[in-house]
Amino acid sequence: MCNNSLPEYAFIGRSNVGKSSLINLIINKKNLAKTSSYPGKTTSINNYLINNKCIIVDLPGYGYYRRSKLMKNNFLKIIKFYIRNTKNLICLFQLIDIRIPPQKKDLNFIKWLYKKKIFFCIIFTKIDKISNFVLNKNIFFYKKKIYKKYNYLNRFFKTSIKKKKYKINIINYINKLNFIFNKGN
Ligand SMILES: Nc1nc2c(ncn2[C@@H]2O[C@H](COP(=O)(O)OP(=O)(O)OP(=O)(O)O)[C@@H](O)[C@H]2O)c(=O)[nH]1
Ligand SMILES: [Mg+2]
């Protein structure tokens, strides 16, 4: 948890969804956040100070099936404590692997975010791994599912560590939020 005066942006999602990889891409540092092809790599809350302007936070993933139930619950508790108690958490980026149908673990986490009124955006990851047709279809169904349940559509982004051009939308959005944050302080 970090209660300093800078705006903070955190990345959350199931283990292996690509949180650490996306952070490296966004901050342009190849191996700063540790990544792995095996789930469960990030096991602590890692803060990265970006140009003295904001803090990017890499969170451990939730729901890694090889962890014991106790460990999974403890990780979830730590993540939720961080999210609820970080004063300057401006936006939480919820990462979703768009190759697969909506997963209960993600939908439960999203439900909790709505319940606790946490501001979040959704990032669909690994878009290089499916065709444009499947991508658009999956995004359509995801949006529909969320809209039907909450009557509200979050801002959505799509990304890939292989199709680097998509990161600019997230960078621009963070810059915009930084600007708004600084104007209000
Ligand atoms: N093809 C492809 N692979 C990706 C993409 N993003 C991440 N990966 C791969 O997915 C695997 C997991 O990436 P990580 O960034 O470690 O995932 P994580 O969400 O931080 O995982 P945990 O730390 O275990 O919670 C790695 O092998 C990455 O190279 C993507 O956009 N496209
Ligand atoms: Mg990670």
Account of the protein in words:
The chain has 185 residues and is of the alpha/beta class. The chain has one domain (8-183): P-loop containing nucleotide triphosphate hydrolases (Rossmann fold), CATH 3.40.50.300. 40% of the residues lie in helices and 18% in strands. It has helices at residues 19-27, 69-85, 104-115, 132-150, 167-183; strands at residues 8-13, 46-50, 54-58, 89-97, 120-125, 156-158. A six-stranded mixed beta sheet has the order 2-3-1-4-5-6, with helices on both faces. Strand 5 (120-125), helix 4 (132-150) and strand 6 (156-158) form a beta-alpha-beta unit. The structure holds guanosine-5'-triphosphate and magnesium ion (MG).
Give a summary of the structure in a few sentences.
Helix content is 40%, strand content 18%. The chain is α/β, with parallel strands linked by helices and 185 residues long.
Q: CATH superfamily assignment?
A: P-loop containing nucleotide triphosphate hydrolases
Structural class: alpha/beta
Helix content range: 40-55%
As for the number of domains, it is 1
Tell me which ligands are bound: guanosine-5'-triphosphate, magnesium ion
Overall number of strands: 6
Task: Give unreliable regions as ranges.
Answer: none
Strand numbers in spatial order across the main sheet? 2-3-1-4-5-6
- Whole-angstrom Rg: 16 Å
If you average the pLDDT, what whole number results?
92
What count of helical segments does DSSP give?
5
The SSE string, one letter per element, is: EHEEHEHEHEH
Can you tell me the overall shape?
A: globular
How many strands, which pairing sense, and closed or not: the largest β-sheet? 6 strands, mixed
Question: What is the name of the CATH class?
Answer: Alpha Beta
Q: What is the CATH topology? A: Rossmann fold
Strand content: 15-25%
